[in-house]
Amino acid sequence: MLQTIPIDQVKEALDQFSKGQKYLYNTLTTTIKENQTNEIWFIHLLDELRDNVDLFENINEQFLDFLQLQIDWTRQSKTVLDTFRAFQINLISCNTKHAQRYLSFLFTIFTISEPSTNHLPLHDFAHETLQQLVLIVPLASTLLCPIAEQHFPFMTKEINLQISYVKNLLRSLSYLSIQRLRFLEIILSKLLRLDVHASRQDIIREEKSSIESELVFSLEQLDTNDNNTNGMKHDQADKLDCLMFVMFEYINSICIENGTVNYEQTKSLFRDLLNIFNKILLPTHDSSHVQFLLFYICSFHTDFSDEFMNNCWKTFVSPSVSMTFRQSSICYLCSLIARAKYITIRSVLNITQLMVDWLHAYVSTTETNSGNANPNRHLPFYAICQAVLYIFIYRHQEIARLPDGIEITLQWRIGRIISSELNPLKYCLPAITLRFAQLARNYQIVFCYSIIETNNRYSLPETFSTNDYHNVNLPSNILYSYFPFDPYVLKRSLIFIQPIYNDYRDENDDSNIGKDSDDNDRQEIDDSEDVLTSMMMSTTPGSSDSLDHLPITTMSTSFKNSRNPPSVLPFGRSPGFRNAIN
């Protein structure tokens, strides 16, 4: 039977090691490593170390690193793990400088993937130790967030490591509730990094190419790959899909108890997510999926969706917020209103009325001195004008079903806005402008085609360019347009979003509303069929996929004009405007 190592021998080995003599130390570490599976022997050694923590007062930190990193703790029994915990807690209680090292060790354990659905015993050990350590050493809580962020697996690491780490971070919030905001911020910032590296267009392209390549295989070969149908072909998207699924499950675990929504807990979590949205989501350009966590939690109660929309609106109207953030906030607002099924049509009308009132006030203050001013000064106006058109495109069927829906829309007096000298139809996305023109003509709200044709005559067609550094207007060409709640394309986690998501539907209802055979009344534009094709897609009209279907002449409308148009254009209603629809 292997004899235990006397504590005096351990002390002598450490003393000689500190003097540069490594023979006894190497012998000691080799003996421990070779006999780590001998449970009784290893427990006795750890007990001896626990009773002599003064050995590690100022030196011998390398031996602590050896115990934490060179021992295979996944093979140890619960008794050994409990003994090691007692040793580390006793050590940190005597000298808190060891807390950071031990916390790093615990967070490293979080990355070890679980072999099954059950919790790994080592994970239970890490959580129990972390909970006990924070109670004994309160200052250890100040080290948690930097260490948690430092040990978060890089996005190129295996998905199992990332899932395990995120699950354990979320599990730790059950006893570290004060750290929830910061931990969620760390997790979402990492998810955002994955998100921006897996754009919606790249994911769709990968899926399409994968489907095309699979067509060359026989049905028998396809049957053998059925187990992979739920995965994403895009590597970063597949990781993001799995992590988003974990986050949606966490939201459900916090917000739903016995099949009903726990309002207070949901409100607390929503406030944390809203703070994170203002801090890292709103300033991030071109994220595609992470923001759907807010989209999902807003569906639990109207108070949350109202608060989110109020937050976006306050950001937009705040004069102290940069113009880019103001545009981004209105993009979030209009995209949520257009896509969320849980927002009632009456709420849609009320919010849109608020936008229209702002537009009229803006037009009133600028109509006397706008002239041919630089349109970059009015980007918030163009952004909110496009938002109104966008909302109407997606919710016009529900508005039309209301007894007073079209009447309320007529009270918006959109004609005054689009015929103002600011000329918003010139700078909105062409697909949105043309689709709204078709709907507005059918519902007899306003006639837009004469304005669109006049803009086309006075504008040079240009595509976006990143190589022209001489034209200062080109980066704002047309309008900064970003619709964050465009379709969710991650397969696994889609089940959480699909029931509450409003896809674009074209029931050809507008084609049956009093078609007029007169060509002058129709005011057809050459590319209107292409716009209808793009609108049939589920993505936002004017997105990169939709724009691919448009002729190059409608890809963008430059702020540069071929010749200066008159300050007041001859805008007006169609001479053949039909009677109001019953």
Automatic annotation (TrEMBL):
<feature type="region of interest" description="Disordered">
    <location>
        <begin position="556"/>
        <end position="582"/>
    </location>
</feature>
<feature type="compositionally biased region" description="Polar residues">
    <location>
        <begin position="556"/>
        <end position="565"/>
    </location>
</feature>
<dbReference type="GO" id="GO:0001042">
    <property type="term" value="F:RNA polymerase I core binding"/>
</dbReference>
<dbReference type="GO" id="GO:0001181">
    <property type="term" value="F:RNA polymerase I general transcription initiation factor activity"/>
</dbReference>
<dbReference type="Pfam" id="PF05327">
    <property type="entry name" value="RRN3"/>
</dbReference>
<dbReference type="InterPro" id="IPR007991">
    <property type="entry name" value="RNA_pol_I_trans_ini_fac_RRN3"/>
</dbReference>
<protein>
    <recommendedName>
        <fullName>RNA polymerase I-specific transcription initiation factor RRN3-like protein</fullName>
    </recommendedName>
</protein>
<dbReference type="GO" id="GO:0005634">
    <property type="term" value="C:nucleus"/>
</dbReference>
<comment type="similarity">
    <text>Belongs to the RRN3 family.</text>
</comment>
<dbReference type="GO" id="GO:0006361">
    <property type="term" value="P:transcription initiation at RNA polymerase I promoter"/>
</dbReference>
